[in-house]
Amino acid sequence: MSKIKLGILGGGEDSLIGILHRVAASMFDRYEIVGGVFDIEHARSLSFGEKLQLDSKRIYRDLDHLIKEEAQLPENERMQVISVLTPNFLHFPMAKQLLENGYNVICEKPLTTTYEEAKILQKTQEKSGSIFGVTYTYTGYPMVRQMKTMISNGEIGEIQKVDVQYYQGWINPLIHDKEKRSNTWRLDPEKSGISCCIGDIGTHAFNMAEYVTGMRISSILADLNYLYEDNPMDIDGTVLLRFSEKVKGVIRASQIATGEENNFTVKIYGNKGALKWEQENPNYLYLLKEDQPLQVLKPGHSYNSDFSLEGTKLPPGHPEGIFDSMGNIYLGIANAIEKNTKFEGAFPPLAEGLRGMSFIEKTVASHKKGNVWIKMNDK
């Protein structure tokens, strides 16, 4: 079977996210990285492409050059899908141009810097018919997919409470230094959009809450923290959630949780039981039921769903992690490109990125209006 030809925008020498995507694309032997634009400076991009042992002729100066030169190649040699791994403000123009030229797209989150841009992107994708995946990475974990399946099957009953926490501490050393916080791109609205914490990690929590429960959040109330008056971007926040009048929840997100690394925890409580999952210990899914011992489910066992097992690459007892999670998303996109989609929720589509942008804007609006409830219904 011939491999899907993949191009990459961004994700160069010093990019953590670039490594994650390249490793993910190599899993399952479904993609071949053939070129791209890895850095804004062409010399650095060329140097990095050489380290990846790519043909220097396909390390392009910019996106315009890439589109022009790829069109000159025989159709069976051209890039079929391109990953956009650039800072947030470049997601929209790059993804839009790629869709308009017939490419399938894989895009980092947040999808764009505004909800209006995201709506334009959705219309562009609908017109193009291209596959578009947004890398809400954590939905690729086998035990997250097991959680989704168990909730869908009614194993914890009717959902009553949703509690999602995403705590990091990486901004803490920067935020208290005026010069450092002024020179960090994630705290620059021109490059990052209107939100830092909610836009970066709160959107993961929002997506996860809707992904595993299969429900849509109907309204939110937010309280954000900026810490310093000259800092225009939130770095901490709490968001109350209403799925319905009887189903409530909370998202707690922070980048100033001192000492925390990547503490993403998901807890779903039903009237017959509960499920808990922690990103830092991703191979354990905890099932709680009244008057029964705590159960611990792990990946790779036959008791798991087909959806969970499809994304499990190692025998039981062998840890799998975030590279595997992203790899499972790339697998889902590969299946879609080859019209071989197997499972509902195999990758986050553009529509989930659109919902994420709506959540970011409504969260900021709720805070600025005095911490009021705002409906999540899309415009």
TrEMBL record:
Domain Gfo/Idh/MocA-like oxidoreductase N-terminal span(s) in chain numbering: 23-136
MF GO annotations: nucleotide binding
Superkingdom: Bacteria
Domain GFO/IDH/MocA-like oxidoreductase: 144-275
UniProt cross-references to Gene3D superfamilies, sorted A to Z: Dihydrodipicolinate Reductase, domain 2, NAD(P)-binding Rossmann-like Domain
Annotated organism of origin: Christiangramia fulva
Protein name in the entry: Oxidoreductase
